[in-house]
Design a protein that fits this description.
23% strand; Alpha-D-Glucose-1,6-Bisphosphate, Chain A, domain 4; 2 domains; 6-stranded antiparallel sheet; elongated
């Protein structure tokens, strides 16, 4: 079986990967669905034509626990292309993005206010708030990276389920 696995977005908060297989998308979907239905499967999930997702059971889930979403497409060169993405639970991801937007908007307002003061020849006394907001943004990014590291073993569990379902356990090529 021809397969290629490419890791993408290594530094991102939502790691992505691609797997190219010489099997048809319908067969890939059926293999994933069968793997998720096994009694020994350590994750919950569902698969339908073109899409699959996996998550840990509620008893094993933490705030940093990831969800794996997969799209299964027909590859241009024949076979199928699986695009996978690990991400936090939707509520957590929404909160993180909301905080980034609020912090970014606040930084924009502070900088515009201080630039206006500067252009009017007034003192830029509140510029330190910009540094505080930047520190908060960096702290948020650091917390997200820590959560990603804490969930690395959970991501590996989901990857193992996918690999076992598709019989990819041996002979992987990683780039």
């Amino acid at each position: 079986m021809e397969k290629t696995i490419k890791k993408e977005n290594k530094a991102g908060l939502r790691p992505r990967f691609r797997i190219e297989l010489d099997k048809e998308p319908e067969e890939v979907y059926q293999l994933i669905a069968a793997g998720l239905k096994k009694e020994s499967c350590p994750v919950l999930g569902h698969a339908m034509p073109g899409y699959a997702s996996m998550k840990l059971p509620a008893k094993d889930r933490q705030i940093w626990s990831p969800i794996l979403t997969l799209t299964i497409e027909e590859n241009e060169s024949g076979g199928s292309l699986i695009r996978g993405m690990y991400s936090p639970a939707p509520g957590i991801w929404t909160l993180v993005m909301f905080l980034y937007v609020i912090l970014g908007f606040s930084l924009f307002i502070i900088l515009m206010w201080q630039f206006s003061n500067y252009s009017l020849g007034q003192e830029m006394s509140e510029l330190w708030w910009g540094a505080v907001i930047l520190i908060a943004m960096v702290a948020l990014w650091v917390f997200a990276r820590i959560g990603q590291q804490l969930s690395a073993h959970q991501m590996q569990i989901m990857q193992d389920v996918l690999d076992d379902s598709l019989n990819l356990s041996e002979g992987k090529q990683k780039e």
